[in-house]
Amino acid sequence: MEEILYIAIIIVAIAFALTAIYIAFVLHRVSKLLRSVGITLGELEQEMQQITPELKESLHQTNQMLDDIDDKLKATDSVFDTIDNMGNSVSNVNQAIRKNSDKLTDAEMAEKTKPYIEGIRWSEAATYLYNKWKKRTTNGDKRQEVNTPIAGSNHIRREG
Known about the structure:
Elements: H1 2-101, H2 106-139, E1 143-147, E2 154-158
Antiparallel strand pairs: 1-2
């Protein structure tokens, strides 16, 4: 019976040794894995240190562009208010013309509407000149449209 006890102790010792070897093997693999993760995280940290300033600069430029767009949109508010006022004026003129058209002759109507028509012509001319000026300033270079006598076609000529 003693022999069985010794054999059992030897089997338990061998099992313990195999378990210890297996645990050592697993811990060695975990150690290699953690080293690899550490190296990868170090590389990631270096890349993030390079990317972060560029990302901050991109966000700063985007913020500036959004501020610029906001300012430009606010600048157009007055233009739309002016267009609204002009539309109301034209509507008022139309109503006045409808009221008085039965009472006035064509010559009297033409005489009374002459200041309004003249105002509309001048406002169209001012709008045209403003758009030309704005187009030249936004292009940044000196381009000028030149009308040639060939079928009214436009050619662009650089000056400077």
